[in-house]
Amino acid sequence: MRIGFYPGTFDPITLGHIDIIQRATALVDRLVIGVAINRDKGPLFSLEERVAMVEAECAAIMERTGLELIVHPFENLLIDCAREVGAAVIIRGLRAVADFEYEFQMVGMNRAMDDSVETVFLMADARRQAIASKLVKEIARLGGDVSRFVTPPVQAALLEKFG
Question: Does the annotation count 17 as an active-site position?
Answer without folding.
Answer: yes
